[in-house]
Structures are given as C-alpha cells and as structure tokens.
Specification:
The protein has 10 helices and 15 strands. It is α/β, with parallel strands linked by helices. It folds into 2 domains: 5-127 and 279-302, Rossmann fold (3-Layer(aba) Sandwich); 133-272 and 307-326, 2-Layer Sandwich (Dihydrodipicolinate Reductase, domain 2), CATH 3.30.360.10. The strands form 3 sheets. Strands 12-11-7-10-9-8-15 form a 7-stranded mixed sheet, covered by helices on one side. The protein has a 6-stranded parallel sheet with strand order 3-2-1-4-5-6, sandwiched between helices. The chain has a two-stranded antiparallel sheet with strand order 13-14. Bound molecules: nicotinamide-adenine-dinucleotide and 1,2,3,4,5,6-hexahydroxy-cyclohexane. Involved in the oxidation of myo-inositol (MI) to 2-keto-myo-inositol (2KMI or 2-inosose).
Length: 339
C-alpha cells in the first residue's frame, strides 16, 4: 500500500463518489487515503469497504490525514479556490474538477500561488482532452490535412440540470468544457463572446434561460458556436464538428447501440456524462496518477483553468447584456510558457 499514491478526495457527491470508485477499482498506482464532505454520510457511503480510507468533514483534516500525497477536488466550484490554495500550500499535487474556480479573480489567485511556488502542481478536470473522439479530432487538425480550421460547431445537451443550476452556470459550468476544448483543439485563445437566447424550453425550470446559443471569436480568426441545452429531456449529447478549408470532421454521433426491430432502427442515447465520458474519466485519472507519481503535470494546467474562467465570465456578462463582450486575459506567468 505504501508505494501507492494516497489520494484525498474532497466532495463525495456525483463526481466525487465516482472518482473514489475509480481510484479504488479502476486505476492502478493509487489508493483512496481520505475523503472529506461536510455531509459526512456521503463521505462514509463513498468509502464503504475501502480499507485505510479516513473520513472527514473538513478539507484541512483530509489533506493532513496519514498517507495523503495528492488531492482530487470534486466539491462544488465555489469551494475550489480554498481547497486548491490549501493543497498548494502543502505542496500536494491536485486534480481539480472543472470549473477550476468559477470567478476569474479567484482563478488568477490560484495561478499566482502556483507561479510563486515555481512548479506546476495542479491539473484541471477537462476530461474531454482524454476522450477518444476529441483526441482523434485534435490529431487530425494538428496533422493539417484538412487545412486551417474555420469553424467549430458544438452541441452540449444534458437530460436535466441539477437543482439550483442558474442561467450563468450554462456557461461557466457546462460551456466551460467547450471553452477548454476549443482552446485545445485550435491552439487559439477565445477573444470575444456573444450569447443569444431562444425562447426558453417549456421543459426548463421557471426562470432558467435554457437553451442558449453561444458564439466565440478566436485570435486566429475562427468562430466557435455552442448550442447548450441542459434540460433537453431526451439524452446526454456532446458533439463537435470542425469545418476546415479542405474538409470537415465530426465527433460525438456514435454512442450507444443501434437496435433494429419491427421495421425500424433505434439508437441508444446515453443519459448522462458518467456513461458518455466513462473512458475519458478513467484515462484522465490514470494519466494524472501516472504523471503525479513521476512528479509531473501533463494535463490541462491552472492557466487553462484560469483562461476558461475568464472566457466564461465574459460569456456570463454577454448573456446578461445581450452584447458582444471582449475577453481580457491577465499576462501569462513564465511557468505556463507554451501552455
Ligand atoms: N467533468 C465533468 O464532466 C463533471 C461532471 C459533473 C460535475 N463536475 C464537477 O464536479 C464538481 C462536483 O459536482 P457534483 O455534480 O459531484 O456535485 P454534487 O452536488 O453531486 O456533490 C458535491 C459534494 O460536495 C460536498 N461539498 C460541499 N462543500 C464542500 C467542501 N467545501 N468540501 C468538500 N465537499 C464539499 C457536498 O456536500 C456534495 O456531497 C463540480 O465542480 C462540477 O462542476 C464535473
Ligand atoms: O457539471 C456538469 C459536467 O461538467 C458535465 O460534463 C456537463 O455536461 C454538465 O452540463 C455540467 O453541469
């Protein structure tokens, strides 16, 4: 057990409990050393049957628990800054679920804290970078066979949103994935954003602006559009089509089984992200564990987390004002050169 990377998991809700299961049963080289959740019953349920995992209600107690050498943050976004700063202060490597910190000022404080340390310790949970379809699309775009990318058309649909989901969260929680994916796929920064809202769906909770149509401009002259619809009712669908000068490529259509019967064919549509992106989460966490054991960070960095928050924040302003809104990024610290 001593050689395994002991991980403290903060937050034992949907994602946290799934990551506890993954660390315990799916990935190699790690073990769950501690779990913290103010709702102690959730933490206890998540660690049931896992030998050597302690349960806590406070972040600091979990970080200081015996055997903890790394941290996986899966608490709600507003709790991430405090947890990240506490982990960095202890020199602990971290995998932090998206959004890194929803407000860009808080996200920048994390970047600055890491820059002061002078070494990267944080990886952000933009797991689409580990999805097979996204990786193939990235490889194709990098290869250049289709020419320069001109547009990305993205679809992001959830069956339903969690209670307390706000109109801003369609952008700073849901579309944060497309923001990171677009920056990564294109190798360009998103410089401006416009948000249009159709009539809200009757299936959306009262007052929620759902769906939304989000349009990003990039510093390389490309456009990225995202239909985000978090109470579509029928399935979890994430697609991305790149339109380039000499061709197009689309991912995200091929999930689930196709059942033919009685003269008709019906395709299964996954109902949530835990199914659609199961392989991506497994690869993400395995890759984080492997890199962490070698003292490296190989995935999306705190700078990527900050950039996503800054773009999303401009998006929320665009949603509220109805106007095209420019994105302002702080100067990039030397630690993230080339990132
Ligand atoms: N990568 C993805 O696809 C994906 C999917 C879902 C959620 N997420 C992210 O994961 C995070 C958690 O989301 P969720 O859906 O699991 O939420 P959730 O509400 O199901 O669970 C959050 C848990 O955190 C606990 N908690 C609250 N404050 C805490 C604190 N200060 N310290 C520790 N625990 C605390 C809550 O009691 C709850 O058990 C969010 O950042 C969310 O955006 C990512
Ligand atoms: O927190 C979740 C998660 O990030 C999912 O991947 C996304 O599809 C949802 O819209 C979001 O609410």
């Amino acid at each position: 057990m001593g050689d395994l990377l002991g991980v403290a998991v903060l937050g034992a809700g949907h994602m946290g409990a799934d990551h506890v299961r993954r660390l315990d049963r799916v990935v190699s080289g790690a073990r769950v050393a501690a779990v913290a959740d103010p709702d102690v019953a959730r933490a206890e349920e998540a660690v049931a049957g896992i030998a050597g995992a302690s349960v806590h209600t406070e972040t600091e107690a979990a970080l200081d628990a015996p055997g903890v050498r790394a941290v996986l943050i899966a608490s709600p976004g507003p709790a991430h800054e405090e947890a990240l700063l506490a982990a960095l202060a202890r020199g602990l490597p971290v995998l932090c679920e998206k959004p890194m910190v929803p407000d860009s000022a808080g996200a920048l404080r994390v970047v600055e804290a890491e820059a002061r340390l002078g070494r990267r310790l944080a990886q952000i949970g933009f797991m689409r970078r580990y999805d097979d379809g996204y990786r193939r699309l990235k490889a194709l775009l990098d290869e250049g066979r289709l020419g320069r990318p001109l547009m990305l058309h993205c679809v992001h649909r959830n069956v339903s949103s969690p209670k307390d989901f706000t109109s801003a969260m369609l952008i700073d929680s849901s579309v944060s994935h497309e923001i990171d994916a677009a920056r990564w796929l294109l190798g360009q920064e998103l410089t401006a954003v416009t948000v249009l809202r159709p009539r809200p769906s009757a299936g959306a909770p009262e007052g929620l602006s759902d769906p939304q149509f989000v349009l990003f401009e990039t510093d390389g002259g490309a456009l990225v559009d995202v239909e985000v619809f978090v109470n579509c009712g029928f399935g979890y669908q994430v697609r991305c089509e790149a339109v380039c000068e000499a061709g197009s490529a689309r991912i995200g259509d091929d999930h689930g089984m196709l059942v033919s019967a009685r003269g008709a064919a019906a395709a299964e549509v996954p109902q949530d992200y835990l199914v659609r992106f199961v392989d991506a989460y497994d690869r993400e966490v395995q890759s984080w564990v492997d890199a962490t054991r070698q003292g490296r960070v190989t995935g999306p960095t705190a700078w990527d987390g900050y950039a996503a928050s800054a773009v999303a924040e401009a998006g929320v302003r665009a949603l509220e004002s109805g106007a095209r809104t420019a994105v302002g990024l702080a100067p990039r610290p030397e630690l993230y050169a080339g990132n």
